[in-house]
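Batch 3, record 17
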Amino acid sequence: MSNIGSYDERVKDFSWSIAEKELGYAPGDVINIGWHCTDRICRMGRADKVALHWEGFTGAAKTYTYNDIRLASNTIAAFLRGLGLKPEERVCLFMDRIPELYLGFLGILKTGAIAQPLFSAFGDESLLVRLANAETSAVITQKKHAPKVRKILDKLPALRHIIIVDHDGAAPLKEREVAFSLEKAAPVEHFDVHPTTAESPSVLHYTSGTTGMPKGVKHVHYSLISQYLTAKWALDLRDDDVYWCTADPGWVTGTSYGIIAPFALGVTQCVLDAGFSAEAWYKWIEKRRVSMWYSAPTAIRSLMKAGDEIVKKYDLSCLRHLASVGEPLNSEAVVWSARVFGKPFYDTYWQTETGSIVIGNYPGMEVRPGSMGKPFPGITGTVLDPVRNEPYPTHGKIGLVALKFDWPSRMRTYWNNPEAFQKKFRNGWYITGDRSRLDADGYFWFAGRDDDIINTAGHLVSPFEVESALLEHPAVAESAVVSKPDPINLEVVKAFVTLKPGFMASQDLDLDIMNFIRKKLSPLAMPQAIEFVASLPKTRSGKIMRRLLHAREWGEEIGDTSTLEND
Amino acid sequence: MAEELKDIVLKYVTKEYLEDDSEPLTYETPLISGGIVDSFSMVSLKRFLENKYQIAIPDEEATPEAFDSVNKIVALVERFVAKKG
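Prediction for the assembled complex:
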C-alpha cells in the first residue's frame, strides 16, 4: 500500500492540516525548516539514524546521522551569526555538491537568513546579476569557485563576506574572505534557532525570464508543509527508504526534494558528487541500496542511450519507486524503465515558482505514459483558453496550464520585481507559462512552453540573457537565440549570429563564441549550434522575429509574416 | 603523434575547463565523472577536437566514458584520425 493510498479519496477530503499535524505545527507557531529537518527528527528519537551518505568523485565518502547534521547546521549557523549576519539577509551557497552545501543550507535557515543557492557552474556574469539583484550579504563557496566571485567583487558593494569552506592556507585569503572549516570548528550543541514564522522568507532561487534578467523566486518557511506532504504522497517516501535525488541544489528540485523534504521526513538520503555516467550511477544505486530514485528525463534518456546490457551488470532489485521531474517525460522512457527496472518512472510537474509538485502521477492511480498526471490533492489546476482566460468548457484543447494560487509552497513574490509577479496572473489564475491539454479523465498532457524560454535538460534558459551576453563578444553584431530539438536534452540553445565588419565566419570563431558564453553564463546556456547569417528576420519596427527562427528549427508553420521587414 | 596529441588536449582542457589551476590535471584525471567537464561542456570539447583534427565524432561515440580522461580522448581521436586515413 502506497502512502497516498487512493488518489480519489485523498482529493475528496484533503486539507493541508494533515501535514501541519504530522509536523507538529499549528497556525501562528514558530516554523523553521532548518530546525524541522534536524532538531525535530532528533527529538523524535532518531538522532542516530543516518541522514546523509555522501560520496565525491575521488571516492571520498562521509556519513552523517541526524544528530551530526543537527550539530553541523548549528555550527555553521553560529559562525554566520558570529559574522554579524542578520535574519532575512541573503546568504548565497555557491558550491559543488559537497556536504557543506547541504549542511550550510540548513544552517542559514536556522539563523533566519535567506538561503540563495546558485549552480556552481555559473560563470561570473550569471553570478553577478543574481548576487546584485538579491543584494547578497555573504557567499559560502570553495576555493576553486572563489576566483569567479573575486572577479565581480567591485560590483557587489552589499557583499560583506566570502566564506571559503576548504581554505588550506596555500594561498592567502583576499579581500572580504574568511575561512571556515566544518571539520575543524568546535561542534555547537545548542543554537538559538531564529523564531521564523510561516511567512518568514526562507529560500531565494533564481529562474530565467523571457524578456528580462533572471527573477529571484522568494519562498517562505511555510513551504515545508507542501514539500513534506508531496514527498510523502507523490514520491512515496517511507521511513525505511534510501533516497537518491539526482538534482543539484543550485536548482529548486535539489533543495525542495534534495534537502528539505527528505530530511523533514527523517529519511536516509544519499548524494553522489560526480558527473554523469551510466556505470557510475548504477554502481551507486547498487552500493547504497537506493530504494526511491528521483531523477530527470535527460538523465533517463542518457541511461536509455547507454543500453539495456549495462543494467544487467548490477543488482538494482533495491529500487522500489522511481519518479522524474524537470521536463516532459516521454512515454518511451516510461515504457523502457518498466522493462529494464521492472517499474515505470512516475512523472511529476512543478516549477521554481510552485516550490513543490503540483501535478503528478501517483502510486495510488493509473500511470498514463507521457502524461503529466493530475493535480496534487488540494491543488486546483486547469487548462485556460488564452483568449477568454477561462478554463475550456470541454477537454482536448491545448491551452495554458493554470493553477489556483493557494498552496503552502507557492512563491510569495519575485525579489525586487513585484510587477513581474503580477504579470503571472490572469483572471485569478496563476499562469505557469506551459501549455497542455486535458483528457476526459483529468490527466494533463504537456504541449510546450507558452514563451521563448528554452528548457534544456530540465533547466530554463532565457534567450534574452544569452543574446545580451553574445553582444559582448567582439565579433557579434546581432543575435537571436532559440531552442533546437535534441534527443537527450529535449531542447538545446541555438544562436543565429550576424558578424561585425572585419570578422569572418569560421570553425574557430564558432568554438570561441561557444566557450565565451559557457564561461560567462553557464554550460547550459552555451549555444550548441551557431549559424552565421547575413541578417536576422525583423519586423518593420526593427524587432527580431525569433518566432520565425524557432519555427524553422522545429519544422513548424511560420505563421503570419505580414510584419516582416523586406530586405 | 600520441604524445603531441596528449599534450594539446591536456593544455586545452586545463585552459578551458579547469577552475582551480592549483590542482594540475594528469592524463588520467577523471574529467566527466570528476565533474571537471559536464555533459554540456563536452559538446564544446568535442567541437574543438573535430575542428583541430578535421574529424567527425558521431554522437553515439561521444559518450561520457569516452571523454573521461585525456588518455581516453586521445584514443578516441586517434581512432577517427586513422579512419580518415
